[in-house]
Amino acid sequence: HQRGEPGRLQHAFVPLDFPGSARRFIARLRPGLAIFFETEIWPNLLVACQRQGVPTAVVNGRLSPRAMRGYRRLRPLMAAALGQLHWLAAKSREDAERFRELGMPISRTDMAGSLKYDLRVDTAIEVQSQQLCTRLGARPVWVAGSTHPGEDEQLLAAHAALRHSYPEALLILVPRHPQRFDAVADLVGGRGMRLARRSREEWPDERTAVYLGDTMGELLLLYGAADLAFVGGSLVPVGGHNLLEPAAMGVPVLTGPELANFADVAETLRQGGALVEVTDSAMLADTLVTLFQDEAERQRLADAGLAVVATNRGALTRIMAGLERLLPPPSE
Predict the structure, then answer these.
(1) Sheet of strand 56-61: strand arrangement
(2) Are 131 and 252 contained in the same domain?
(3) Same domain (yes/no): 319, 286
(4) Which of 44, 66, 133, 170 could pair covalently with 225 via S-S, beta carbons 3.0-4.6 A apart?
(5) What is the number of structural domains in the chain?
């Protein structure tokens, strides 16, 4: 958003973080406020903002233990960069403490919470999810979202084991990256499982084992149509993905052990009794069977997840209030 041009939004690529390019970028853009998200900390861009009188903030600030190990080797550089910041809205107390260790002044740090809890589900998505759920019928349905190479194989093995107990069970499989859609379809076919692809408007019949969610922007919708949701990137060393999406849809949340990117969210769900954790494919299969046998426990998990999301909302309001304090007064 540029000064003197209310209501106008303009997109521009941020230059490589060299002093000259950063200085020219800020001089040309003339921002009233520069907001950096999570760990996007660019030292020369911060210096350019400071020298040209542009207030700066990091919101939803997070530093995973893995990232912290790398940043410690660059502590003098990071301390100089963070010293330029006017405000840090940290995602958690642990993140705030890691930023402090790198040189962020505690006086300019607040624990605002995670923006991910402020997820609001559009009514249209809820309606479409319910329509899909109704059309799928009474069969057991579970979804595995944002999956990665090396993980799909484990999920398909768990699904094959589940179908020994529930032959009509359906897996909605949603790979994280669209360039893998065809490869995952081939993987399913190679396991001898009957497949339907959403992108081709193929409908899963009673013999279909896997419904491939090979479309974009529909993960929430697909989560909401299932009885159980496994969040991918957690059976392989990726660090996990957003556990709050199925929770916000009122669907019980399952995950593997690799949760470095969402450790704080996982702990909050864990404390709220809203997270089911498995270590491998075999444990996942056993857990699926157990949960499909226990409707009351599925409902308890769903209610607990919704409660965790509702209780922890509010980061957006706190962040907007903090940013408003940094904005320059409107010009006459």
Answers:
(1) 34-37, 56-61, 87-90, 109-111
(2) yes
(3) no
(4) 133
(5) 2
Query: Given strand 253-255, what is the order of strands in its sheet?
Result: 195-197, 210-212, 170-175, 141-147, 228-231, 253-255, 275-277
Q: Are residues 186 and 221 in the same domain?
A: yes
Sign of CA dihedral 208, 210, 215, 217: positive
Mean pLDDT by groups of 10 residues along the chain of 332 residues: 60 92 95 91 91 95 86 88 93 92 94 92 95 96 98 98 98 98 98 98 96 97 98 97 97 96 92 98 98 98 98 95 88 53
Residue 21 burial (C-beta neighbours within 10 Å; 0-12, 13-18, 19+)? middle
306 in the same domain as 319 = no
Domain residues for 178?
123-311
Site of tokens 């007064």: 329
- Alpha-carbon distance of 170 to 172, in angstroms, equals 7
Phi/psi zone of residue 282: left (φ > 0), alpha (ψ -120 to 50 degrees), beta? alpha
Measure the CA–CA gap between 248 and 67, rounded to whole angstroms: 28
pLDDT tens string 204-214: 999 999 999 99
Same domain (yes/no): 280, 302: yes
